[in-house]
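WP5 quarterly update. Target: DDE Tnp4 domain-containing protein. Source organism: Parnassius mnemosyne. Length: 284 aa.
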Amino acid sequence: MSEEIYLNLLSLVSPLIRRKDTVMRNAISPHERLTATLRFLATGRSYEDLKFSTIISPEALSSIIPDTSEALFKVLCPDFLKFPNTDQDWKNIALGAIDGKHVSIALPPGCGSEFYNYKSRHNMVLMAIVDAQYKFILCDFGTNGRISDGGVLRYTVFFEKHQDSKLNIPAAELVKNGNRSLPYVFVVDDAFPLRTDMIKPFRQADLNTYEKKKYNYRVSRARRIVENAFGILASRFRILHTEINIEPKNIDSVKMACCALHNYLTETNQASYSPPEILDRDYF
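Structure tokens (predicted):
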């Protein structure tokens, strides 16, 4: 992140994280709060470890980081994590790939096996829809890891709106140089249910023709976008590679801040955040 981009981010978030000085002590400045939060997200270090580089106590960090993360999401969401509202918005995106990412967490007290999943870890699921530019157009986090990606989808705001026909997805259009109308669909993997508005690959056992194999290849090329977006997100925000040991109610703010920052940096600082050479390219 360049200094210019950082200062712009600081100006956006400062009104929400600035605290008043008291007669007992001076308040921790917005600059210190933001740098501590960004360092936590980028490195995944514990509060106990961060106290040496931030000169802020772990007790204060346990309040500062969730508050600043929530503020980051609040100021960035309207401009950098906007969900399409109109027919034209969806057409501008053209590609919507859906997938879920399991995020490891430390077992909260008294939760038992609530978050225990098939990978023998305690996880929460980040469900996301990604466009062709590797940017998130919708993120939903918090469902426990025992539920499959297809099941998680049913608990999202996106699914509720879709069921009520409130997404304003464009109607089917006539194929160029053809006589068929094709609908707009989302690209998903085999874990999701088969629906008329979702396109998914054939099972491995059913790949008995060349046409089916070619179809699966094309679907995989389209769906890799969401996998790559998660890869970029996790490589820049190493907190996603750690077992997050904070209260579950605060993990939501941390993860949503990562997604909002991902979109913000993709648009404003792409040359260093996600340069073209790290992205997949097709040459045919």
